[in-house]
Amino acid sequence: MCPRGPTCWERKSPGGRSTGKSWSRPGSSPGSCSSRRPGARSCHRELTLFIELTDLLRCPEDHVEQFLVLLPDTIVERSVQAGSLGCPVCGKTYPITDGIARLGAVPPLSESDTVLTAESVEALVGLSGPGGYLALVGVGGALCRNLAEQAEGVHIVGVNPPSDRRAVPMVSLLEAARIPLKTRSVRGVVLAPGYAFSSVWLEDAKRVLLPGLRIVGEGPVPAIDGLEVIASAGGVWVGMPT
Questions:
Q1: In which domain, by residue range, is 190 found?
Q2: Mean pLDDT on 65-69
């Protein structure tokens, strides 16, 4: 949810044709990028948070589920590079820095090699057609990027990616101690080893998943109420909430 406040300006080509809109806080110059690193060629090479995803973000604190209010500092082409998210219930404020929404401490889990590929995730989750969001929890940046290319039109939400955080269109990154997304909001959830056998993360995966869709996990098959494991092989399982 984004309150009115930043200034919208329209860029035009030398011939006068519009090339898109950007946003900035009052007082900043059009085209400026507060999070740009020295030597970077363009703001678009920085990590960014898809602005429409902010409508799905929820405060991770233990209270009634509530939207977060976006206070942007820099937005370019529908993506947030810097700003903050505020909770109207508990009053907490969460920063967005370097294009990553930081909604809590990342669990100290070691990174593990994945046996999953973009093709296998797409098949196991059952993605068909564009649109919506796919949540990848603890999954490395390479798989996030490959999925963004493979699953055309599906926005990838990387929660606590352990490494290789390069900017890619259709990928937004979050840091949190749980999945900070709206209940029943994503088309699928993929849990990396460590997350896939945690009751906290399994319960959250069930919560954020749209009805009738699937969770894919790496590691031992979990035994948890409300989750039916429909297939498992080679250290990977597929489950559906019941």
A1: 118-241
A2: 94
- Which residues contact residue 215 at a Cβ distance below 8 angstroms, ignoring those fewer than 6 apart? 188, 189, 190, 191, 202, 205, 206, 209, 227, 238, 239, 240, 241
Domain's final residue, options 75, 102, 129: 102
Q: Quote the number of domains for the chain.
A: 2
200 and 134 fall within a common domain: yes
Q: Which two tokens stand for residue 76?
A: 């370019």
Per the confidence metrics, is the pTM higher than 0.90?
no
CATH assignment of the domain containing 132 = 3.40.50.150
Compute the C-alpha angle 91/95/99, nearest 5°: 150
**59 token code pair:** 């405060």
Rounded average pLDDT over 169-189? 95
